[in-house]
Design goal:
The chain has 453 residues and is α+β, with helices and mostly antiparallel strands. The protein has 2 domains: 231 residues, Tetratricopeptide repeat domain (Serine Threonine Protein Phosphatase 5, Tetratricopeptide repeat, Alpha Horseshoe); 188 residues, Sandwich (Immunoglobulin-like). 28% of the residues lie in helices and 26% in strands. Helix 2 packs antiparallel against helix 3, helix 4 runs antiparallel to helix 5 and helix 5 packs antiparallel against helix 6. The N terminus and C terminus are likely disordered.
Length: 453
């Protein structure tokens, strides 16, 4: 495993700890795990402009074809069936948004077809209200004639980058339905298809079963269907997925291990990828009920990695990083794993005391578990690993066995974790609680400064 190299400064670590606690103190409103950077508009339903129209959007099918790239990008194809319910032909300038807000790059490679014939369009800038604010927005305008009583087929395709923080493990793709409200009556039927470059499931698509419009999962595709929709802002569609580069890593390492199950590096990389697939930037975990399974898969893989490569400090440190998340923001709460985290990071420090990545993980763990790991002038102290029960006159010292939680999970090669037996009852420290959404970007900034330190 290759270590990242960056300078290490103890005062920066203390400054980071101060920043984190200040941020925590400012946070009073519960935060959702789906906090994202400013909304990117990756296209939307065409709208008729300012005209009053008898043309109805009878049907639309939108396909979000996610590409196996980093940064995450998708090719969007939107097909619309329009029908003039009036008695006279209508000729109008239909417009399609090319924009994104907050100076996020516009959508690219836009193409338009009407009744299967390519159509050129004019790019115009118009003042548009977005999220209650007026902005100068680019639109594609193209003239269309809608004969009475006939269907007109409109097709629009374009490419768009997903919305994600650079340090996040998930990416959002969106589609704006509300611009279709300008047409006659309701949208008769709207189908949105998410197509991934691998099998789609609840592990790589967040909150998969929470949207009541979900109508099917078919191999690489997830399908949502809406009927007689009068779209408003609340109906705009968005989906979060694990970044394709992470899920591709999981698939690649599982293939590697199928050929060579004794490859400790592959097990370590698999553990890291599983860890990334359930965690936002440290120490937040996704809250859709899948974290427990992915945590167990990551834990199994790391167990195998440190077993096959016992002298690799970085895999011990990466394993400790996983275990220390136990009980953190939205993560599975397994008290004995916090003890194991301290054992693993102490071992990593013994093997490679000067490795900057090991030290960076150690610092994070000392912040996450401040009662169990304390930064000293010349290293670290581990109170939880050195405590000894105090005997009394009537009660002999007792060394309880830790309760090891077992969980059946789908794994490339199921493993049975072997936890070290602590010499004292497993501490269950009071862990930080989730604060407002403000904590996310500020914590990320603090982590960036820490890593740079």
């Amino acid at each position: 495993m290759n270590a990242k190299t960056f300078p290490h400064s103890r005062w920066i670590r203390w400054l980071m700890t101060l920043i984190l606690f200040l941020i925590w103190g400012l946070s009073v409103i519960p935060a959702r795990a789906d906090v994202a950077p400013p909304q990117q508009f990756p296209g939307a339903n065409p709208e008729p402009g300012s005209e009053t129209t008898q043309v109805r959007m009878v049907d639309e099918v939108v396909t979000i074809d996610v590409l196996a790239e980093e940064p995450a990008r998708a090719h969007i194809t939107a097909n619309f069936t329009m029908r003039n319910l009036g008695s006279q032909a209508e000729r109008m300038s239909v417009r399609f948004p090319l924009f994104s807000t907050y100076k996020v790059p516009d959508i690219k490679n836009v193409r338009v077809w009407v009744d299967d014939k390519p159509l050129s369009f004019q790019r115009v800038i118009q003042e548009t209200e977005i999220y209650g604010e007026k902005a100068q927005i680019p639109w594609a305008n193209f003239p269309i004639t809608f004969p009475p009583g006939e269907n007109v087929l409109i097709k629009v395709s374009y490419d768009v980058y997903g919305t994600a923080w650079d340090y996040d493990n998930f990416v959002q793709f969106s589609y704006i339905l509300e611009t279709g409200a300008g047409w006659k009556d309701t949208i008769g039927s709207a189908t949105i298809i998410l197509r991934l470059p691998y099998e789609a499931n609840e592990f790589n698509v967040l909150d998969l079963y929470k949207n009541p419009a979900l109508s099917g999962i078919n191999d690489r595709e997830v399908i949502w269907t809406f009927k007689n929709l009068e779209p408003t802002f609340e109906d705009n569609f968005k989906v979060y997925i694990v970044k394709p580069v992470i899920w591709k890593q999981i698939k690649a390492e599982k293939d590697n291990l199928a050929r060579n199950p004794q490859d400790g590096e592959a097990w370590g990389r698999l553990g890291k990828a599983y860890k990334q697939s359930f965690g936002y930037f440290k120490p937040f975990c996704r809250d859709d009920g899948i974290s427990e399974t992915l945590y167990a898969l990551s834990k199994d893989a790391y167990e195998k990695a440190v077993s096959l490569k016992p002298e690799d400090a970085l895999w011990h440190a990466g394993f400790a990083d996983l275990l220390a998340r136990s009980g953190q923001w939205g993560c599975p709460d397994i008290p004995e794993d916090r003890i194991r985290a301290l054992q693993e990071i102490r071992l990593a420090l013994e093997i490679a005391p000067n490795d900057p990545e090991v030290q960076a993980i150690a610092d994070m763990i000392s912040w996450a578990l401040p009662d169990g790991m304390v930064i000293k002038e010349n290293g670290y102290d581990f109170p939880w690993l050195t405590q000894t029960p105090v005997p009394t006159e009537t009660t002999a010292p007792v060394t309880p066995e830790p309760a090891v939680a077992t969980q059946a999970v789908p794994s490339p090669q199921p493993l049975t974790p072997t936890l070290a037996n602590p010499t004292n009852p497993v501490p269950n420290p009071q862990l930080p609680t989730c604060g407002s959404a403000l904590i996310l970007p500020l914590l990320a900034l603090g982590l960036f400064l820490w890593r740079r330190g």
